[in-house]
Amino acid sequence: FRMHPISIPTIEKISPECVPLWLDLLPALSGEDTTKSFFQELVNILLSYVCKSFRRSSKVLDFHHPHQLREGLEGFSLELPDQPENLEQLLVDCRDTLKYGVKTGHPRFFNQLSSGLDVIGLAGEWLTSTANTNMFTYEVSPVFILMEEILLKKMQEIVGWSEEEGDGVFCPGGTMSNLYSVLLARYHFFPEVKTKGMTALPRLILFTSAHSHYSVKKSAAVLGIGSDNVVVVKCNDRGKMIPAELESSIITAKDQGCVPFYVNATAGTTVYGAFDPLNAIADICESHGLWLHVDAAWGGGLLMSNLHRVKLQGIERAWSVTWNPHKMMGAPLQCSAILGLLKDCNQMCAEYLFQTDKHYDTSYDTGDKTIQCGRHVDVFKLWLMWKAKGSEGFESQVNKCLENAEHLFDKLKQRPDFELVFKSKPEHSNVCFWYIPPGLRNMSPGPERNRRLHEVAPKIKAKMMEQGMAMIGYQPLGDKVNFFRCVFSNPATQTEDVDYLLEEIASLGHDICIRD
Amino acid sequence: FRMHPISIPTIEKISPECVPLWLDLLPALSGEDTTKSFFQELVNILLSYVCKSFRRSSKVLDFHHPHQLREGLEGFSLELPDQPENLEQLLVDCRDTLKYGVKTGHPRFFNQLSSGLDVIGLAGEWLTSTANTNMFTYEVSPVFILMEEILLKKMQEIVGWSEEEGDGVFCPGGTMSNLYSVLLARYHFFPEVKTKGMTALPRLILFTSAHSHYSVKKSAAVLGIGSDNVVVVKCNDRGKMIPAELESSIITAKDQGCVPFYVNATAGTTVYGAFDPLNAIADICESHGLWLHVDAAWGGGLLMSNLHRVKLQGIERAWSVTWNPHKMMGAPLQCSAILGLLKDCNQMCAEYLFQTDKHYDTSYDTGDKTIQCGRHVDVFKLWLMWKAKGSEGFESQVNKCLENAEHLFDKLKQRPDFELVFKSKPEHSNVCFWYIPPGLRNMSPGPERNRRLHEVAPKIKAKMMEQGMAMIGYQPLGDKVNFFRCVFSNPATQTEDVDYLLEEIASLGHDICIRD
Predict the structure, then answer these.
(1) Segment (H or E) for B40
(2) Which DSSP helix (H) or strand (E) runs through B209?
(3) Average pLDDT of B439-455?
(4) What are A170's strand-pairing partners?
(5) Is B475 near chain A, with CB under 8 Å?
(6) Which residues 22-81 of A are in CB contact (within 8 Å) with B?
(7) Burial (0-12, 13-18, 19+ Cβ within 10 Å), B73
(8) Between β-strands B320-323 and B336-339, what pairing exists: parallel, antiparallel or unpaired?
């Protein structure tokens, strides 16, 4: 392994006539050298960005409003030309694109469930785009198709399924994975829906918790079931579905002449990071003959940790599982798996695309099991990360994120200027809290305090984004007014960053004006 | 613009103890140098692959059956370890992954509608993955969100829509874009479907041609409309929808008490590359009050050419359009746009994800108009390509692909060992033909000749893949037995490659055995 330190040269200004254009790159006959030089310059820009992303002295973002960016900051024009730009200008465009973006890999970016910049995963993405192929057939993606199969099997094994139960596919995001689960369940109970449509079916009812992701409702809307037919089951204070509420909702739906068929249990809710009690829910699904889906988009990563996987006990009883390695496992966007028997749910047998008289085993052509046709290669980055870290590497990453959450929780408990949204220790890496500005600290609870408190987080976030040194999300939920949600999925984040975040919020929030 | 020629060093074998692991890379404290060196080695591998992809002397693929790859060729193990592999081994894995894959950018890869390796697009993808962010909100993707808006507006302008008609989104593939179109149409006529589901609706009927993409049927199945409710309209010999057939199908459906609501017209069919007569179809849609969708996934690229855009005349009358720049415009996979008014079709107003009290104009948060939640950044590569080439660059690429098709067509007409599937000049870059082996040349047309002819293309393709010097697809269609479909979307392809393909097919096909 040789070290070749890369210098980051600046692009020299040369008169435009000498500057190469895209036509000088491959496939031009003598395009190899120009192509390599162009990529070398690009790689310098990209690696400089990568290094900066990890430096605490650099900003997370340099915020501008849409109209400012549209007007062309410092000559950065977003408009599309009729004539070509030269390669030098393109590199400047690339630099500017990164400059005005958000460093989602920065150790102080706490804004999303997906954060961090895994450099092995990044290497995997660069290779994936260089290979530029499609997951629909083995003939154009032999290696990636097998990697997908191996990854899915491994994930199923980790979920706790036997070999035969396995199948699945990587989809463009957790919402699509959840949509697949509803599709699978509907087809399982009513295979005629594929040809006859919903008109031939009774009124179907789905169940999901009040804290679950909105994709269950969206799926019902898209699939023609209707979002009104999603029954929202009550949660306890901690954001966990209450099994008794689920059971009574099922009975009520049956009494009304509807047909319950699907329950979504969440393993790691978006805001609280709560885990629904999977075994209790699985018992209810079994006794009523319902499909159990577990949305572990966010919580699935905890399966990699011997310390934390107990929180998903019962997941092996699910009929389908969503698990997004692009969240807790740090894979670059997107990487989301739906696990479950796809079989012929989506099959259309378009022989003109998926010939069965080819000379290899065409059961490896995955195109006909998906609801896409062409499909991006989302697996290689995860495969490469798994090779690089081993299962153990993922375990240590996950544990570290949860340690950061516990650190934040402990700090918050000690501070009088913050208030926790729920008092119990976080189960996942989500920590939810309010900052209480001086003027609100002695107000008694009630609508007036709530009204004011609701304005605090947006105001602090706005100032934080303008300043650009950290980023965190907020939201209201149920009867709770706007509160911050801090999440940890970035292995670059250290406890010092957690401490920094609290100081930052307190200092930005200390002097904000809240209207009387 | 400085030239930095890159040497491609071989990876030296060093004793395993000294070899860095992933833990030595960023975010490790002193990880910058190791990270840069690792990427430099990777980039050497990737650029060497890119250069090879364009060399005619290199193979398109090195075919192996699934079981061979699974067994681990020359130590290339696909299995996922518990313990980390070192960085050197990862680079070997990367090299092997490319080695056993398919060079979709090779000038002699004719297998798919998406081919070619656009190096500017590739640069765009490397940057996209380095930025590693998500299209759902402006706050995490300010630049990309604006680029998407600008690209969509430009594409709408090219389609011929006025400013106000515009909206849209980039989706993971043309099938998803077509699915959006059905969703939009259904919501337009029956907005209650979102909450009440299909049960509240009459029996809806969709229309699409016999040569259209199967995604219309798949969408009907997924969306709960049912694939039986897709009426397949007859085409003429050239694969174009017959307007009179469409109209009579609509009337028949109405007579049966069903509700026609949606017509898909194809601009560039998958196999023949045929363009449906859009104006005639638009007239019918207007008179019956139906939604007109134009699936220009494949043909949309021709809009960039002043010479060829006439073939899509009438597309401006469509209510929604699918257009995949990853096909004819050569953008890396995936890059597919659905154009049309999304408005509140998919909106769920999940305030816990899409807060409206943020300090910027939140109409730029696109998450709630899509059926995904998180969404990959598919726009930057196209934006960068547009900057690099200008609209004019795309025009010349498209024209060149169609010239190649015409060259192939002219050659085929002259050769006695080949037979065209249809005699007229190709409208798009698809050219469909049979190779006729010596034993079949004097057989009279009929079932026996057809049975034998059906076996020819698969046998030739199998041999071609084993040899690895070119790749082309085949399929049956309607009453036509297996024939080759050659498509041109790779600007690297020259007429010499077209000539090579014919010689290759003839030489592989000359001696094949067809069972009596």
Answers:
(1) helix B32-54
(2) strand B204-209
(3) 96
(4) A337
(5) yes
(6) 22-23, 25-27, 31-43, 46-47, 49-51, 54, 63-66, 69-70, 78-81
(7) middle
(8) antiparallel
CA distances from A16 to A76, A356, B1, B88, B468 (A): 18, 54, 10, 41, 42
- Is the CB of residue A324 less than 8 Å from the CB of residue A297? yes
Least confident of A5-14, A133-142, A254-263: A5-14
Q: Give the C-alpha separation, A464 to A473, whole Å.
A: 11
Amino acid at B327: K
In this predicted model, what pLDDT tens digit does every residue of A138-156 receive, in sequence order?
Answer: 999 999 999 999 999 999 9
Dist CA A438 CA B257 (whole Å): 68
Tell me the pLDDT band of A515, cut-offs 50, 70 and 90.
Answer: confident
Say yes or no for a CB contact (<8 Å) between B14 and A5: no
Per DSSP, the residues of A212-234 read S-THHHHHHHHTTS-GGGEEEE-
Q: Do A387 and B9 touch (CB under 8 A)?
A: no
Q: Is the ipTM of this complex over 0.90?
A: yes
**Which pair of tokens denotes residue B256?**
């049966």
Neighbouring C-beta atoms of residue B38, cutoff 10 Å = 26
B286: CB partners within 8 A, 6+ apart: B317
Residue range A221-242: mean pLDDT, rounded: 98
Give the Cα-Cα-Cα angle A212, A218, A219 (nearest 5 degrees): 100
Which pair of structure tokens corresponds to residue B422? 């249809």
Minimal CA–CA distance to A101: which of B377, B302, B117, B312?
B377
The b-or-e profile of B380-394 (16+ CB within 10 A means b, else e) is bbbbbbbbbbbbebb
Contact B146, B74 (CB under 8 A): no
Q: With contacts defined as CB-CB under 8 Å, which chain A residues touch B256?
A: none
CA-based nearest residue to A477, from A168, A269, A175, A256: A269
The amino acid occupying position B432 is C
Q: What share of chain A is helix, strand, coil (3-state, %, to 5)?
A: 45, 15, 40
Q: Three-state SS for A249? A: helix
Q: What is the DSSP letter of A235?
A: B
Q: Are B506 and B455 in contact (CB under 8 A)?
A: no
- Identify any residues that bridge with B295 across adjacent strands, giving them in sequence order: B266, B322
Backbone region of residue B280 per phi and psi (left: phi > 0; alpha: psi in -120 to 50; beta: other values): alpha
Per-residue pLDDT of B487-515, as tens digits, reads: 999 999 999 999 999 999 999 999 898 87
Contacts of A147 in chain B (CB under 8 A): 78
Inspect the interface and report whether the beta carbons of B130 and A49 lie closer than 8 Å: yes
CA dist., res. B177 & res. A353, Å (int):
18
Say whether B387 and A194 touch across the interface (CB within 8 A). no
Q: Which two tokens stand for residue A385?
A: 């990360």
Q: How confident is the model over B200-215, as a mean pLDDT?
A: 96
Distance CA A174, CA A229 (A): 21
- What is the DSSP annotation of B215-276? HHHHHHHHTTS-GGGEEEE-B-TTS-B-HHHHHHHHHHHHHTT-EEEEEEEEBS-TTT--B-
- SS3 of A324-362: the string is CCCCCCCCCCCCEEEECCCCCCCCCCCCCCCCCCCCCCH
| Weakest-pLDDT range from A48-52, A117-121, A346-350, A443-447 | A346-350
Among A25, A34, A43, which would you mutate to test the B interface (most chain B Cβ atoms within 10 Å of its Cβ)? Answer: A43
Q: What is residue A310's DSSP assignment?
A: G
Structural domains of chain A, ranges and CATH numbers in brackets: 31-61+102-132+378-516 (3.90.1150.170), 134-376 (3.40.640.10)
Please count the residues of chain B: 516
Interface touch B372/A346, C-beta < 8 Å = no
